[in-house]
Amino acid sequence: MNPLSYKRRCTFKVVVPLFLVFLAVGADPKTTNALSHETSASEPAPVTITDDEIDGFLFRVNEDVRNKVMVLGGEPVEQLPVPILFGIPIGGFTDTWGETQTGGRVHAGIDIMADRGALVVSPTDAVVTKIGYDNRGGNFVVTANPGGEQFYFAHLDRAAENLSVGDVLTRGDLIGYVGNTGNARSTAPHLHLGIYYKGIARNPFQRLIREFSIEERLASVEHILTENKIILGEHNGGVRFLQRFLIQNGTGPRATALAKIGATGYFGPFTKNALVEYQKTASIVPASGYFGLVTRTHIVTKLLVNINAEDKTGASNKLQLFDL
After folding, report:
1. Which of 8-22, 110-124, 129-143 comes out lowest in average pLDDT?
2. What is the pTM of this model?
3. Sheet strands (E) in the chain
């Protein structure tokens, strides 16, 4: 499959025109009516999230957000991908559910250790219900998920740029970046993932049974790079991704200068100079510091090569290059 032609949010449907059904069974009105009755009777009524479940959310939601949540579907997603896009394979984290914490509290989630800035993405379709900060969870994002559940992503270095309450997310959309904010300041960076149903915590560990596929990863990266303006003066997740890419590649003194500033998400002169340097090294013409289709395609292709190389060597998919 060509990764560059992969389409996000695609749903393919096979539609059989009704007149073909008539030809198959005959146009007898009695037969047609019977068929229609049988078809409608065999289709189960759609299951939706109930008002009672939404009223049990961790945070109250307004009517507009409630309406978006209702269409997520009434059944929870039992088999979840690890919500860190790169670097954390199945078996790369442990079950920390129920561990005793400071003050006698019990850990109501799991901690997934990862590099600072690693991409945290939504493991299901979801709706953002809360973005905030508190002394315990630090920077956090809460989403509504299918089946009336809510996912709590905590200790983030920061939430994704331009993420807002009410945003409708597709699986693989960016939530934020791994950090150690809040009461995790003295620990190594990690993602605290909690799952709640009517305010009661559920253990996520047994449900995290797969990784995002190559196609899903590439689609997520392309979405980050195409949905953000990566131009001089902009500040967003696409710029942050590009900066980390340039820093990790280390093509010369301009990349070194950018590394001293870090992946801030702001496209300034240091980022432009480092991009020009990289484009020259990669023989991208013109090497002007403009981030267009050619440069984006080059980055995504390089990502695919790295993933394939890791898979062939049996490595753990710990792609430092793209752990932003």
Report:
1. 8-22
2. 0.80
3. 80-81, 110-113, 119-121, 126-134, 138-145, 149-159, 168-169, 174-178, 190-197, 200-202, 208-210
